[in-house]
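> tool_call: predict_assembly(chains=two)
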Amino acid sequence: MINKIISKYKATLDNFKGGELKCHCLTKPVIVEIKGQSAHNHACGCSKCWKPDGALFSQVAVISKDNLKVTNNESKLTVIDDSATIKRFACKRCGVHMYGRIDNTEHPFFGLDFIHTELSTQKSWSAPTFAAFVSSIIETGTKPEDMDAIRQQLTSQGLAPYDCLSPVLMDVIATHIASH
Amino acid sequence: MINKIISKYKATLDNFKGGELKCHCLTKPVIVEIKGQSAHNHACGCSKCWKPDGALFSQVAVISKDNLKVTNNESKLTVIDDSATIKRFACKRCGVHMYGRIDNTEHPFFGLDFIHTELSTQKSWSAPTFAAFVSSIIETGTKPEDMDAIRQQLTSQGLAPYDCLSPVLMDVIATHIASH
């Protein structure tokens, strides 16, 4: 029933120095260089996130936008939806999303870029710790009757399932709203 | 630290026939008559819901809009925010929200009215079974550092805390989106 919930996790390494993300093009791939370790890595079921073939969830983490640099073939990147809160920069050829950026300086997550750590050959990015927007996978074709088993599987893999973000991040957002 | 999470629950009664909701005015109260039992009752922390004095959460349930009738002093009602998805009909004098209605026929919850069961003198409405929009109470003044204790207290009272709606209802919404 469930072929693939999420790509195999990578282990977190404390002194990890960062690495590269690469799109799926065999020639002239877009390459993004990331300095330092990622944070808040999680499985994401939202309908806007790019996902590996056959996966119900992507892996999404954040890093400071100042620690992200497109080093190769930047001209192949295009913004998927200019009106979205998170502008997703995707490869025009293979469709892979290379990073997401927030332009709104008032947004609680402004300053952070969103990256899919499974696009890296390095193995030591921060591991996913929860699953977000789980119910949204129904929007992209998962049968509602499969959801109980999927939430159980996520839980058994140590990924507490949430239909929004995790309580920690939801509290961050609410705190930001309260202070503005 | 936490004075009052939610009003004391009422027990569910299987053959409950419904009852009345009354605003807080001592004279000429608005009275709303409800036929039959409520459903999906929950504690709600959202910033738009009316809450009893000193309570962090309201109790909100749904009933078919065809089973709701304003029987007394309807002229005292006003819509709090005409642009909101749920139009909340409140007493102009005491401020209590008597019911919420959705006009958008495409909305997954169209046809259901939202009511605060603690406005009733009847004691047998369906009891709350979860807590929704928990992180939102930070927006209205709760300290972020109190949230762990509040989530623990909700859990110990049998109200699983969610920062959106419950998985059951989130799946209903996603299923609706998928089919439109």
